[in-house]
Write a structure and sequence with these properties.
The protein has about 300 residues and is of the alpha/beta class. Helix content is about 25%, strand content about 25%. The chain folds into two domains: about 140 residues, 3-Layer(bba) Sandwich (FAD/NAD(P)-binding domain), CATH 3.50.50; about 140 residues, Polyamine Oxidase, Chain A, domain 2 (Alpha-Beta Complex). The radius of gyration is 19 Å and the shape is globular. Bound molecules: flavin-adenine dinucleotide.
Length: about 300
């Protein structure tokens, strides 16, 4: 293992790099077990791809569209958020859905509010990009593999696809209620969600996600706006805000996490690319660290 030099707190036991849902779940589990963990995040906010942004003074979900769960522990987490008024079941059927009904959870305050809830009372440094392995007994890289490899080049390669998100704000709601839709076999559009419906405030805002093929060639949302207009028969032109996710969706890897000596990798690559997987992966790393300190 290379010699480590870093400005980040050499006295802490565990440094978690990345405050997405995986890193937050890991740090939360460690701290609850009495193991100090310091989290370092390059962005100015926690949550990573569990992202909501203020657009025209209103939260819009710009990354993950909703949460689903089939793991008992994660379902328990969702129920706790429900009791706390932070999450609610949204819909079990989307247009174009090919599988059985599946409960999809949304957050009235935006999905990022769930990440902020997990982050409460954790020791988190925001706006600090980590470029080399921090000095610590244990380091957790809680991020997509290509980002982790910038810090730990020996980490195995992973296969990731990009997505373009287009946030479409209309003057008024002009579409029949539909919650959201999978747009199958479209060259540009993969999904569209009614953000006013999922957030529950009936705002005239749709959020479209592109296909990976489109995002490999384009980072612009104008074509998504046009495709949504055609799909839903909307004649008005929306205001368009675009976001580009270079590492949106991984090809699933085996195992709940990866380990290189005292460095762990976790995130949604270790299973189906979902928030649940990221949360479970971060928690699994924390449990492995807790077990090793128990010996
Ligand atoms: C467009 C889109 C739609 C999606 N839809 C859904 C959905 O409907 N349902 C669902 O369950 N999932 C969905 N997902 C996937 C879901 O968002 C992810 O599975 C989950 O949020 C991943 O969490 P994570 O913690 O593993 O990674 P991330 O959220 O990517 O967190 C990694 C964090 O590490 C930080 N970081 C990276 N490098 C560094 C560095 N060098 N120094 C410091 N910090 C660093 C990043 O800034 C980021 O905050 C979607 C994702 C996208 C992009």
């Amino acid at each position: 293992m290379r010699q480590r030099h870093s400005p980040y707190c050499s006295h802490v036991t565990v440094v978690v790099v990345g405050a997405g849902i995986a890193g937050l779940a890991c740090a939360r589990e460690l701290v609850d077990a009495g193991i100090p963990a310091k989290v370092v995040e390059q962005m100015d906010t926690v949550g990573g791809r569990l992202a909501s942004e203020q657009i025209d003074g209103r939260w819009v979900d710009t990354g993950a569209a909703y949460l689903t769960g089939d793991d008992p522990a994660f379902l328990g987490r969702l129920q706790t958020w429900r009791i706390d008024g932070l999450a609610r079941p949204w819909t079990d059927t989307l247009r174009g859905q090919q599988g059985p009904p599946t409960v999809r959870w949304a957050a009235p305050g935006g999905l990022n509010s769930l990440a902020r809830d997990l982050a409460r009372e954790l020791d988190i440094t925001l706006g600090a990009e980590v470029t080399e392995l921090p000095e610590a007994d244990t380091v957790v890289l809680a991020m997509p593999g290509p980002q982790a490899r910038k810090i730990l080049p020996e980490a195995a390669e992973q296969d990731w696809s990009p997505v373009v998100t287009a946030i479409l704000t209309y003057a008024e709601r002009q579409w029949p209620d539909f919650a959201g839709a999978f747009v199958n076999d479209h060259p540009v559009l993969a999904t569209v969600a009614d953000d006013g419906d999922r957030r529950g405030d009936r705002a005239a805002v749709l959020v479209a996600h592109s296909t990976a093929a489109y995002a490999r060639q384009n980072t612009d949302g104008a074509a998504l706006a046009e495709a949504v207009g055609e799909l839903l028969g909307i004649s008005d032109k929306p205001e368009v805000v675009t976001r580009f996710w270079p590492y949106a969706q991984p090809k699933p890897e085996q195992g709940g996490f990866a380990r290189y000596g005292n460095v762990f990798l976790c995130g949604d690559a270790f299973g189906r690319p979902r928030v649940q997987t990221a949360w479970l992966s971060g928690r699994a790393v924390a449990r492995a660290i807790i077990q090793s300190t128990d010996r």
